[in-house]
């Protein structure tokens, strides 16, 4: 700082001393960093009031020709900009001060970026330095807990599990509540790129997180557009907010080779404290008096949770090489991740390669940018599902399985045919006889070309290609115990899916000063297509084959043999073990079924079926935005986007989404106390849309109903008559009046900064009103489908407050301390809905068929609980409180989300800590409901000790009630990282950083389950649920050791 | 700027049958008929229509047994006659039945190319589904295939509804095939016999739907339609339990595609059938009342083979899974089957309450046996040739059967005052079932004979309503309100179509 002041005074002195002004003059110099004196390449140098300027080269040097009386503005991301009056100087070398406050950062707002000081909308930006550390599977985890009003919930602790990201509450009543993700300018498709798993009798599972293909280490920043004035530029996809991911380029790096490596050790954070074998037997005996315990006691003492779990050692390696030069820069990176799951047979391996290139031509008038990513992700999944029945999936069975049974994957006692007396599937048998792998290749390529037509007008063409190819194959052996429809038969399943998402955009940018006031205009066109093609195949009747790789290969061979045999235009086929084949054609008129009999050349006779699917959607858009500011005091933004989508019929193909915002920066006004360096009020309003519904719901369509296979490989539809086999079923009940769901959002925000902006932040109030809700409601019968998509005449209102405070407590050379805090309150309500309440939140388990725990209803919050009011056990040990489900005034939506961060720097050591919490939500403990009751232990299923202390009768029915509804409040110590960085002179390594990071170190909560932050998909009839805990993949506690080296 | 695309879509895995301008293009008749027939398989579940027709009667109920069969109270509500318009089976049955009516309408629409037989089959399917809608709710919503979701279906009720169904069937009859007796491969499709059977059912129940007493002319219709079935060769089959297996017989008129696993396992104890048929064992759900069990001939407390009971009550052998009414100690290949507690499994006749029940209360019913075929007419032998593990591939869920037609004819004769002729028919059946012939016919006797012959076949509620016994006190039912004789229009159906009227009493 001192040096800076001296420089300033020196310059001032020189300016004053000079009396001669020249018409043109050449200025050269070098720009260095204030913290370590190193050269900064890529610094923008502009002659104030003109578009004349240059950038520094690799050595930080520059040369610029300026007019008389010129002032040069030096700016670079992460540093405080400086203005220097040139005067008569021919050499100006300056040192830029690193910026410790957030207000000067650049935020990406879609089709451009803006200085935070000038931003009119509610936009949060998280830079890579502030990302969560440790082992990270997907980008959302980088910013978990970092920003107010952004709730990020992993559906489970599985590597690569789906993530539920809600910005400012939930506004739609269906699956389409995720924000739009934009990666380097390419809006990603909301379609799943990996197929969900096959139901082998254990229940369904969800698809993996589609963002897993990105290497978190490549990400430069994640910007979150929260309010409608910011998201309206994305129109129909902006209603749930927009998350813009920007990857790292080579700017500012000179021939820098970086290597980083992380090795992590993960262990399950919490186990259910179930009974040991002795207690299990004695408690069982108490409930089954007079019965010899030998019927359930097999002598061992097995901890089944430990048997399926492991200490997982994961690793991650990143290489990158960056370089920048006068006309461009590039960064190339390669990464390898091996994330080992804490549940055996689960994990994620990822290999990525990226090249980001910026090249300028024609004296920087023509700019070419390429961002290319190739990634390969291999997922391995254990048999864990969302909707397991009484037999349990892997997780469920590991909790309740009889602890006296020895830890072997067999169902038999010795070699005899004497089976263990249990209804539950042996956990080790589930591990041993199940295989499920998904291999996904994905390419994301963005090429853009920008040209400065004049100094004010720029034209840019942007093309994006997002291609993924995913192959999921799974098999389960007939030796697997106790799973209905598998035992003794064995099944295999595969899905091969290709997604193609193509983008073409063209837009003009116009920058003009009107007087001193800059005006920016954007006018553009965008076309994007989403193409999904896939096929799946099933085979059954593998007997007791145990080689599951062989089973999968056999399925693939059989599927190929059939496909080679039948005509090209097949839509479905079914082939039974005798060689009888029925093929369903597509687009023959009339739609034809053809029969064949042929023993195809694959060896073991079994039944095979295949299905193909494909559909394509398009989105065409026109958009415009204008920014204008008057005297750096009044800022205006207006935008409009017209989106046309193939998801809507000709009556409503196009939707128009306008927005406007005003900001009044009053820090310089005399009535504002001196203490404020920054004080601004923002008001914005916009209308955004949502179109995340299925393909073509406006025409009525038929499809061949799914072909079916019996367990023994015979076809479930017999016969060769015209009415035999699968039929044509109507799959959509076309509603030509379907139109865009609309969300109007008002945002009022205040940005503040005082004590030299050492304390800064913002407060935002918002009100989101979602109307014309797109959802499926019951058809008025008779109708071809039970549900029909409509725009529901109801409102979902989300309103709330967000507060962000950042404090720079100290910023000395050898000591720095920053504190950050964010908190958000959200209130959610359904209004003006006069239809029947919609049940959701399906509850699974023994005796829980047809059970559900939540309802969508008028004047209630979304995901409000609708359960029996349980008041304890009566003298007979049965439930009291009545048999009527009712609203109990509790919802699964958190009222308050909060995050706290601390970063400390002492000499060469640094420490970063992040905590976050959610408050006010209730979790329905489906797991306890299904498993932890007297009836369970009486039936020789293991339970937690608290079950024993009640007077519940073993004959009591665990109906869905407040008994299993718990407060979900928690605070999680998510990230604690300690690092040591040093710079080495005259050594082949320049910079080294070593760090240790702990993730999920502890959770403070009263919730009785493993973790209150849980969201198992329990949707019912297409209505999503929230906050229901069942047999989800447990969370890990992880310690990571990292090395970063710069060469 | 110029648009790149007109945003039109070309479907590549489905067939557009109604354009976005609302024009109905017709459907493929054969493909749509296939799915209409296949959809009959939803009757194989223990839920929905089956539950409404059976688990509400003195023949079947499901008590909550510890952690099992609580199922959000759906079974308790049925057993107590405490259902509301929100009951999930009520609205699922409504949806299924009406959806099949719509399928038929798609075929019957002039835009659909079809043969005379296909048209007749579609009319039969429409009539069958509408019959149940009339029987359960008395209001039949109607929508043509070319009407989109914005159109609210009109509602038929009373005489109009009845006449509509009859007209469908009578106009279908000439073009339906006269499927031969025993041709099981064709009996899952419409035939003259199945249309005649349904017409007989309609006229037998006509006075229930339209009010008043049974009319002689209607009873003559019933007799006429059953006579037509007989003219096609349908007759009684010797060997009661053999009818409920995978092969053909003289009695089956119509059966549903789909597998009857729930009929096998729904009632059996967890440990029954395990060693021989299905390692998963039974589901331990449905039980019957002691009163229902008492309707059969035979010693009250002994259902061992040859104990003197009538054939239809079945028997419980010492060393294998029994058939019919499973009461008392249950045997298996390894000797006595064990209850969950480890002690021998003894099914008691009494179920003291609907909740808090142990695993052994209540007599169980098994009509579709996993080890069939049982040798026809021989009590104690099992034909081991046709053992199937879990009931998969067993595709003979009987929906219409000649014995029912015969009893309808007997009832019609009785109702028009000719009890003597009716008695002759009832005794014809009793003789072949090896039960003692009866001396006289009363209303109660007719109803009880139907109970003994047709249990688990989905007719008990319909029969009890017709004989005025449904809105009475029995088993766990206290509610004697006549509103219970029909089900309420589902809440969300009322919400979706204001043309439907809320059902009285709900």
Tell me about the largest β-sheet of chain B: 3 strands, antiparallel
Residue stretches of chain A low in confidence (pLDDT < 50, at least 5 long) are: 1-22
Could you give the count of β-strands of chain A?
A: 52
Give the count of helical stretches of chain B. Answer: 15
Shape of chain A: globular
Percent of residues in helices of chain A comes to under 10%
- Strand numbers in spatial order across the main sheet of chain B: 5-6-11
Query: CATH topology of one domain in chain B, anyone?
Result: Serine Threonine Protein Phosphatase 5, Tetratricopeptide repeat
Overall mean confidence score, pLDDT of chain A: 87
The helix count of chain A comes to 9
Global Rg of chain A:
31 Å
Main pleated sheet of chain A: 22 strands, antiparallel, barrel
Structural class of chain A: mainly beta
What's the end-to-end separation of chain A, in Å?
29 Å
- Give the number of DSSP strands of chain B: 12
Q: From N to C, what is the helix and strand string of chain B?
A: EHHHHHEEHHHEHHEEEEEEEEHHHHH
- Give the % helix of chain B: 25-40%
How are the elements arranged and paired?
The complex is a heterodimer of chains A (1047) and B (506).
Chain A: H1 2-17, E1 24-33, E2 44-47, E3 53-55, E4 61-67, E5 71-75, E6 82-85, E7 94-96, E8 106-108, E9 113-115, E10 123-127, E11 150-154, E12 163-167, E13 180-183, E14 186-187, E15 219-225, H2 228-231, E16 242-247, E17 256-268, H3 277-287, H4 304-307, E18 312-325, E19 328-340, E20 347-361, E21 366-380, H5 394-400, H6 427-432, E22 434-452, E23 457-476, E24 491-514, E25 517-540, H7 548-565, E26 570-575, E27 580-585, E28 593-597, E29 607-630, E30 634-645, E31 654-665, E32 676-690, E33 700-704, E34 728-732, E35 741-754, E36 759-771, E37 773-778, E38 787-792, E39 795-811, E40 815-831, E41 838-843, E42 851-856, E43 864-868, E44 885-891, E45 896-906, E46 909-919, E47 922-925, H8 926-931, H9 934-938, E48 965-967, E49 970-983, E50 991-1005, E51 1028-1029, E52 1036-1046
Parallel strand pairs in A: 1-7, 13-16, 47-51
Antiparallel strand pairs in A: 1-4, 2-3, 2-5, 5-6, 8-9, 10-15, 11-12, 13-14, 15-16, 17-18, 17-52, 18-19, 19-20, 20-21, 21-22, 22-23, 23-24, 24-25, 25-29, 26-27, 26-29, 27-28, 29-30, 30-31, 31-32, 32-35, 33-34, 35-36, 36-39, 37-38, 39-40, 40-45, 41-42, 42-43, 43-44, 45-46, 46-49, 47-48, 49-50, 50-52
Chain B: E1 15-18, H1 29-38, H2 48-54, H3 74-79, H4 88-108, H5 116-137, E2 139-142, E3 154-157, H6 158-172, H7 192-210, H8 216-231, E4 252-256, H9 261-265, H10 290-293, E5 314-315, E6 323-326, E7 328-329, E8 331-332, E9 335-336, E10 346-347, E11 364-366, E12 397-401, H11 402-415, H12 419-432, H13 443-454, H14 460-466, H15 491-496
Antiparallel strand pairs in B: 2-3, 4-12, 5-6, 6-11, 7-10, 8-9
């Amino acid at each position: 700082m001192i040096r800076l002041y001296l420089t300033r005074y020196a310059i001032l002195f020189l300016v004053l001393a000079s009396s001669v002004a020249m018409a043109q003059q050449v200025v050269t110099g070098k720009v260095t960093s204030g913290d370590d004196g190193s050269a900064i390449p890529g610094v923008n140098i502009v002659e104030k009031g003109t578009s004349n300027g240059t950038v520094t080269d690799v050595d930080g040097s520059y040369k610029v020709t300026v007019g008389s009386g010129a002032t040069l503005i030096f700016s670079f991301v992460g540093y405080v900009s400086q203005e220097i009056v040139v005067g008569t100087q021919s050499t100006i070398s300056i040192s830029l001060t690193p910026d410790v406050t957030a207000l000067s950062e650049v935020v990406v707002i879609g089709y451009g970026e803006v200085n935070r000081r000038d931003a009119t909308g509610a936009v949060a930006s998280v830079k890579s330095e502030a990302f969560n550390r440790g082992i990270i599977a997907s980008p959302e985890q980088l910013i978990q807990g970092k920003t107010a009003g952004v709730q990020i919930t992993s559906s489970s602790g599985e590597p690569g599990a789906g993530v539920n990201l809600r910005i400012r509450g939930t506004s739609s009543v269906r699956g389409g509540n995720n924000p739009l993700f934009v990666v380097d300018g390419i809006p990603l498709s909301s379609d799943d790129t990996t197929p969900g798993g096959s139901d082998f009798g254990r229940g369904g599972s969800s698809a993996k997180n589609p963002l897993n293909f990105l290497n978190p280490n490549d990400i430069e920043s994640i910007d979150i557009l929260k309010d409608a004035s910011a998201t309206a530029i994305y129109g129909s996809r902006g209603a749930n907010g927009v998350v813009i991911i920007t990857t790292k380029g080579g700017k500012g790096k000179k021939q820098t080779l970086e290597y980083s490596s992380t090795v992590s050790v993960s262990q399950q954070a919490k186990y259910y404290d179930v009974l040991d074998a002795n207690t299990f037997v004695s408690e069982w005996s108490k409930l089954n008096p007079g019965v010899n315990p030998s019927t359930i006691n097999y002598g061992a003492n097995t901890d089944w949770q430990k048997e399926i779990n492991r200490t997982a050692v994961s690793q991650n390696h990143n290489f990158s090489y960056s370089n920048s030069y006068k006309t461009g820069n590039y960064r190339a990176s390669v990464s390898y991740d091996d994330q080992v799951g804490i549940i055996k047979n689960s994990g994620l391996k990822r290999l990525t390669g990226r090249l980001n290139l910026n090249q300028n031509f024609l004296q920087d008038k023509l700019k070419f940018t390429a961002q290319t990513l190739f990634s390969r992700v291999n997922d391995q999944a254990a048999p864990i599902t969302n909707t397991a029945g009484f037999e349990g999936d892997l997780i469920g069975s590991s909790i309740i399985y009889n602890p006296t049974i020895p830890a072997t994957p067999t169902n038999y006692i010795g070699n005899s045919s004497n089976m263990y007396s249990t209804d539950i599937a042996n956990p080790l048998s589930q591990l041993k006889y199940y295989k499920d792998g998904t291999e996904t290749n994905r390419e994301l390529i963005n090429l853009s070309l920008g040209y400065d037509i004049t100094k004010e007008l720029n034209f840019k063409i942007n093309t994006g290609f997002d291609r993924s190819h995913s192959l999921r194959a799974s098999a389960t052996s007939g030796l697997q115990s106790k799973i209905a429809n598998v035992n003794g038969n064995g099944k295999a399943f595969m899905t091969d899916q290709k997604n193609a998402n193509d983008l073409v955009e063209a837009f003009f940018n116009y920058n003009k000063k009107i007087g001193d006031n800059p005006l920016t205009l954007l006018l553009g066109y965008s076309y994007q297509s989403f193409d999904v093609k896939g096929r799946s195949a099933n085979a059954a009747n593998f007997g007791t084959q145990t080689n599951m790789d062989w089973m999968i290969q056999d399925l693939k061979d059989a599927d190929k043999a059939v496909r080679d045999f039948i005509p090209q235009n097949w839509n479905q086929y079914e082939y039974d073990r005798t060689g009888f084949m029925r093929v369903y054609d597509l687009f023959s008129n009339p739609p034809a079924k053809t029969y064949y009999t042929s023993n195809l050349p694959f060896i073991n006779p079994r039944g095979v079926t295949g299905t193909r699917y494909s559909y394509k959607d398009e989105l065409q858009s026109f958009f415009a935005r204008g920014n204008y500011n008057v005297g750096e005091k009044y800022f205006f933004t207006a935008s409009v986007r017209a989106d046309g989508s193939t998801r809507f019929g000709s009556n409503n193909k196009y939707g128009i989404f306008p927005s406007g915002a005003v900001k009044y920066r009053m820090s310089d006004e005399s009535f504002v106390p001196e203490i404020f360096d920054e004080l601004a009020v923002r008001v914005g309003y916009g209308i955004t849309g949502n179109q995340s519904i299925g393909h073509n719901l406006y025409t009525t369509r038929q499809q061949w109903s799914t072909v079916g296979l019996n367990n023994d490989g015979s076809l479930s539809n017999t016969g060769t008559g015209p009415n035999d086999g699968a039929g044509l079923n109507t799959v959509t009940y076309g509603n030509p009046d379907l139109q865009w769901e609309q969300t109007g959002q008002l945002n009022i925000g205040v940005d503040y900064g005082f004590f030299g902006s050492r304390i800064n932040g913002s407060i935002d109030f918002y009100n989101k009103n979602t109307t014309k809700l797109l959802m499926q409601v019951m058809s008025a019968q008779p109708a071809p489908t039970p549900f029909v998509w409509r725009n529901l005449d109801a409102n979902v209102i989300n309103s709330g407050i967000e507060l962000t405070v950042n404090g720079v407590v100290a910023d000395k050379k050898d000591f720095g301390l920053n504190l950050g805090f964010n908190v958000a309150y959200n209130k959610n309500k359904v209004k003006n809905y006069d239809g029947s309440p919609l049940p959701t939140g399906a509850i699974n388990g023994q005796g829980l068929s047809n059970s559900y725990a939540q309802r969508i209803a008028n004047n209630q919050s979304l995901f409000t609980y609708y359960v029996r009011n349980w008041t304890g056990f009566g003298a007979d040990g049965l439930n009291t409180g009545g048999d009527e489900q009712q609203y109990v005034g509790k919802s699964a939506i958190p009222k308050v989300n909060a995050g706290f961060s601390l970063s400390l720097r002492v000499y060469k050591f640094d420490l970063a800590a992040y905590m976050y919490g959610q408050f006010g939500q209730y979790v329905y403990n489906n797991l306890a409901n299904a498993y932890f009751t007297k009836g369970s232990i009486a039936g020789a299923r293991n339970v937690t000790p608290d079950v024993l202390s009640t007077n519940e009768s073993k004959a009591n029915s665990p109906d869905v009630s407040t008994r299993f509804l718990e407060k979900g409040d928690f605070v999680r110590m998510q990230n604690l990282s300690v690092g040591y960085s040093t710079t080495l002179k005259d050594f082949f390594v320049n910079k080294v950083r070593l760090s240790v990071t702990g993730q999920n170190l502890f959770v403070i909560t009263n919730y009785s389950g493993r973790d209150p932050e849980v969201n198992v998909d329990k949707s019912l009839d297409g209505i999503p649920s929230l906050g229901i805990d069942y047999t989800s993949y447990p969370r890990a506690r992880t310690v990571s050791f990292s090395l970063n080296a710069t060469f | 700027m110029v648009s790149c695309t007109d945003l039109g879509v070309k479907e590549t895995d489905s067939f557009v049958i109604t354009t976005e301008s609302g024009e109905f293009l017709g459907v493929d008749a054969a493909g749509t008929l296939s799915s209409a027939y296949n959809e009959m398989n939803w009757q194989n579940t223990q839920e929905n229509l089956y539950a409404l027709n059976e688990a509400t009667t003195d023949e079947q109920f499901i008590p909550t047994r510890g952690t099992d069969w609580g199922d959000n109270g759906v079974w308790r509500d049925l057993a107590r006659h405490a259902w509301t318009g929100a009951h999930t089976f009520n609205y699922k049955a409504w949806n299924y039945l009406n959806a099949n009516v719509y399928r038929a309408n798609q075929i019957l629409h002039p835009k659909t190319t079809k043969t005379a037989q296909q048209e007749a089959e579609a009319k039969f399917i429409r009539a069958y589904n509408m019959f149940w809608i009339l029987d359960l709710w008395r209001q039949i919503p109607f929508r043509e295939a070319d009407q989109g979701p914005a159109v609210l279906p009109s509602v038929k009720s009373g005489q109009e509804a009845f006449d509509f169904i009859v007209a469908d069937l009578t106009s279908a009859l000439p073009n339906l095939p006269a499927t031969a007796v025993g041709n099981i491969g064709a009996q899952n499709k419409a035939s003259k016999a199945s249309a005649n059977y349904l017409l007989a059912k309609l006229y037998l129940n006509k006075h229930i739907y339209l009010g008043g007493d049974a009319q002689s002319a209607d009873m003559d219709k019933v007799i006429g339609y059953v006579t037509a079935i007989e003219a096609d060769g349908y007759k009684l089959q010797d060997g009661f339990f053999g009818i409920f297996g995978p092969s053909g017989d003289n009695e089956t008129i119509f059966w549903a595609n789909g597998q009857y696993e729930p009929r096998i396992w729904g009632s059996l104890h967890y440990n029954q059938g395990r060693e021989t048929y299905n390692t998963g064992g039974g589901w331990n759900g449905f039980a019957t009342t002691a009163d229902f069990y008492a309707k059969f001939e035979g010693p009250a407390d002994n259902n061992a083979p040859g104990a003197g009971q009538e054939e239809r009550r079945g028997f419980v052998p010492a060393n294998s899974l029994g058939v019919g009414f499973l009461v008392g100690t249950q045997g298996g290949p390894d000797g006595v089957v064990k209850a969950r507690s480890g002690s021998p499994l003894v099914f008691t006749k009494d179920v003291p309450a609907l909740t808090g029940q142990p695993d052994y209360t209540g007599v169980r019913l098994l009509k579709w046996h996993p080890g069939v075929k049982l040798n026809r007419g021989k009590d104690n032998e099992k034909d081991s040739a046709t053992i199937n593990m879990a009931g998969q591939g067993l595709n003979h869920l009987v929906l219409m059967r000649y014995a029912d037609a015969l009893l309808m004819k007997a009832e019609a004769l009785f109702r028009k005052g000719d009890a003597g002729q009716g008695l002759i028919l009832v005794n014809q059946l009793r003789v072949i079932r090896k039960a003692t012939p009866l001396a006289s016919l009363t209303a109660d006797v007719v109803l009880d004979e139907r109970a003994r012959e047709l249990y688990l076949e989905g007719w008990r509620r319909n029969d009890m309503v017709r004989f005025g016994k449904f809105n009475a006190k029995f088993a766990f039912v206290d509610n004697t309100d006549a509103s219970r004789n029909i089900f309420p229009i589902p809440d969300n159906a009322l919400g979706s179509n204001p043309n439907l009227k809320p059902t009285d009493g709900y």
